[in-house]
Design brief:
By secondary structure, the protein is mainly alpha-helical. Helices cover about 75% and strands about 0% of the residues. The chain has a domain of about 80 residues.
Length: about 130
Amino acid sequence: MKLSISIKHIVATSILFATEIAIAYFHFSPFIRGFLGDVLVILLLYSFLKIFIKKHILKTAVSVLAFAYFVELLQFLKLAEKLNIKSEILLTIIGSVFDVWDLIAYTIGFILILLIEKISIKNENPKNISL
């Protein structure tokens, strides 16, 4: 079995990860931190998985969206509170407050993935145009 690593997705993951850290560190506006950060985290998780998974765009994107929804469900069930998690880092990663807007942000991130991939595929395989 040959391991194929996508440099393009390593770069995207690195940029998205640095952006997420900057959003968390610099405490931008609530919209950027609370909404845009959630949109970008879907892109981050997807691009990370795509480093190793060459095919299956839709399956990978749906898996990332399902994972994000699952984490939000755990927030709805107040899992962090029930497990008495006090670590700020863990609370930042898994979250502690359910918000319907997070689900909307995750869905927007999912749609962006599909659009970006469609544009990327179209640019890689342009149609032959006769003049």
